[in-house]
Amino acid sequence: MRGMNGELILKEKTEEHVIYYYSSDTSCFGCDGEVIVDGEIEYIFVADDFITLKTAMFDDDGGQAKWLYPHVWNTIFRKNCPEKRFIATG
User: Fold this and answer.
1) Please, are residues 21 and 39 in contact by the beta-carbon 8 Å criterion?
2) Would you say the C-alpha torsion 3, 5, 36, 65 has a positive or negative sign?
3) Burial readout 33-68 (b: 16 or more C-beta within 10 A, e: otherwise)
4) Residue 84 has pLDDT above 90, yes or no
5) pLDDT of amino acid 34
6) What is the CB neighbour count within 10 angstroms for residue 80?
7) Residue 62 CA neighbour count, 13 Å, CB half
8) What integer is the mean pLDDT of 53-57?
9) Per residue, what are the HEC states of the chain?
10) Is pLDDT at 68 greater than 80 in this prediction?
11) 33 backbone dihedrals φ, ψ, rounded to 5°
12) What distance in Å separates the CA atoms of residue 88 and residue 80, rounded to the nearest whole number?
């Protein structure tokens, strides 16, 4: 499996949930290297579950969002919910 990348930007954090904007792995293709961070992933504390609120550009099937779920969990609980985080594997 090839490596994947994604950028997370904190949209909202409350006692009930956290919402991060996310980018798809290919979001900078064809746009002068600009990363488009327009998808939204929500983590709901009481349900211990993720929801993709909006898929990012170039993430047509939502696969990138689902790939990011464990990385978002890590970002929330191990990294203390930073404003911005770049995820890279490979």
Assistant:
1) yes
2) positive
3) eeebbbbbbbbeeeeeebebeebbebbeeeebbebb
4) yes
5) 79
6) 7
7) 9
8) 95
9) CCCCEEEEEEEEECCCEEEEEECCCCCCCCCCCCCCCCEEEEEECCCCEEEEEECCCCCCCCHHHHHHHHHHHHHHHCCCCCCEEEEECC
10) yes
11) 80, 0
12) 18
Residue 82 identity: P
Token pair for 67: 């790939």
| Residues in Cβ contact with 64 at an 8 Å cutoff, skipping those fewer than 6 apart | 4, 6, 22, 24, 25, 39, 55, 56, 58
57 contact partners, CB below 8 Å, separation of at least 6: 24, 27, 36, 38, 39
